[in-house]
Fold each of these.
Amino acid sequence: MEPNGSPASYGYRMPGEWERHSRCWMGWPERPDNWRDDAQHAQRVFARVASEISKFEPVTVCASSQEWENARSKLPKHIRVLEMSMDDAWFRDIAPTFVVRDKSSSPGYDGQRVAGIDWNFNCWGGLGDCCYRDWSKDILVARKILEIEAVPRFPEDMVLEGGSIHVDGEGTCLTTEECLLNPNRNPNLTREEIENRLMSYLGVRKFIWLPRGLYGDDDTNGHIDNICCFARPGVVILSWTDDKSDPQYERSAEAFSVLSNATDACGRRIEVIKLHIPGPLYMTEEEAAGVKVMNAKYRFAETRLAASYVNFYIANGGVIAPSFGDEKRDREAYNVLCSAFPDHEVVMIEEAREICLGGGNIHCITQQQPA
Ligand code: KQY
């Protein structure tokens, strides 16, 4: 079912990630030209992430026909495994962005409480900047999920990835200029036009624009979900470093300055929790050699990894976060997240580096469907 107006005109809004979910959607990695050693390590870590999330809420993992049996065998029985074609497994960006509405919010419209936005996707920048050459299967994933769930679909021609926006569910949207204003996404839209579209799709009314994303997050042109996120309305967690010689310092400092001077849609000053990045971490010779040269972006040894603890997933009562084998920073991140989420159990995923090698992390491979 495809309604005529925009989601906000029907009273829909994108909820905060901490609002109750009915399930989490994930894909299954298999591209040998993005995931080293024929994706065997990535599959182990995706299975671990799915398994941990499934302790808090139902999980569906989508796998291609060639990989369905393998995925089924590597995932616990209570996780639903569906066959679906896709070009890679970044469900934050290719699955729908779900929105919700109160029953009473739109007289004259008897649609469902949950709907999904099916954004246009150009593989993080279109030909020339894309991460792989053919994304024709990816662009059907959102629609297929909405069909499976019989949830109304709002198709949108603006190019946008779910990882490039964060909301507080109360009218505020956090994003980066580096990604959303990049000419490789929507060259025909001004900042004001982009804001207007997002207002009518996400039900937001206030934007906080950080200039840039995480240093080295070149695959996505600086997605917000790798540098900063809401912990709750009025409180954000920002990737940080104290090392002034690290190119990340300038990026975090400029974001801190924007955030400290910002108010949200409800007029609150923003409280910023700093969360130190790990490392710096670099791709090793062995890791780079395990990635086949085929139809995706080449991976080179010595490349700085876009590693940050902010790229976590908030499940019902749990926070599933990456850890990187940097003992001091991993422990620090665990403590910061425990105090930022006192009502959640924090679970750190060792080996999240494997997801990072593919260009993202836990938030990027998950998509929540609200209850
Ligand atoms: O940050 C995300 N939401 C996705 C990262 C995708 C990287 C593709 N190689």
Note: The chain has a mean pLDDT of 96.
Amino acid sequence: MTKFSESEREKLPKHVAIIMDGNGRWARSRGKPRLFGHRNGVKNVRSVVNAAREFGVQYVTLYAFSTENQNRPDEEKSGLMRLLEEFLKRELATLLKDGTRLRAIGDLSGLPKFAQEIVESSIEKTKHNSTSHLTLALNYGSRQEVLSGIQSYTREILETGKSPDQLDWSTFSNHLETRDLPDPDLIIRTSGEFRLSNFLLLQAAYAEIFVSPLHWPDFNRDAFIEALQNYIQRERRFGKTSDQLAPINQNSITSIAP
Ligand code: FPP
């Protein structure tokens, strides 16, 4: 078992967000249908979530279905929703045992009723957990999230008579769906693509990005550890210079922001 030293553990990310890409290519390279890749991708979720919990990464967010994925063939979309249902049915007991709170970001009303119901009931059943946090981005798109946030903030100023000039980031971020989550420290994307694909665009302002050449079904515990090892070597400056950081040598924006 790979262990991080005490001082390395302190530098580990608090929140890792993952763009699980490459299921289709993984399946195609084996002469199998795309859903075979997605099925193997779901199997992999458990090992990565377990590894995160083991190393004290408190928050994991998975990009499971984007607003743009709605344009995929119906057969693939309904297959993905069935996989989501199976995953939640199978994992609920583990989430409860491990004290993991499930959340979702994205417009759940755009999912089929059965998927919406199981997501909502799993969220409800785990809502008192606080050891770790698993968030599924489902029918999620960052631009849509920002537009909804602007609509929500605009309603607030119309109702309260506040001036739009009072808006600052901390107020606005409370109108985003991620209001209960810290910003991601590390974003992992598999399958060798260097894109954010409409995922947590504002929250990623200071995230470190790690791109793995592996397709998601092959991105195992060891690959996750490699991403963490890479992350702890990085210097997160948050706009400051190295010299300014040296005396405090801190790893999180929360600890250096006033
Ligand atoms: C990207 O691979 C993957 C997706 C669009 C879906 C990711 C979903 C899962 C792993 C399953 C559902 C998740 C949970 C947590 C139940 P791709 O199909 O775009 O791959 P390609 O780029 O090689 O075609």
Note: The chain has one domain: 15-233.
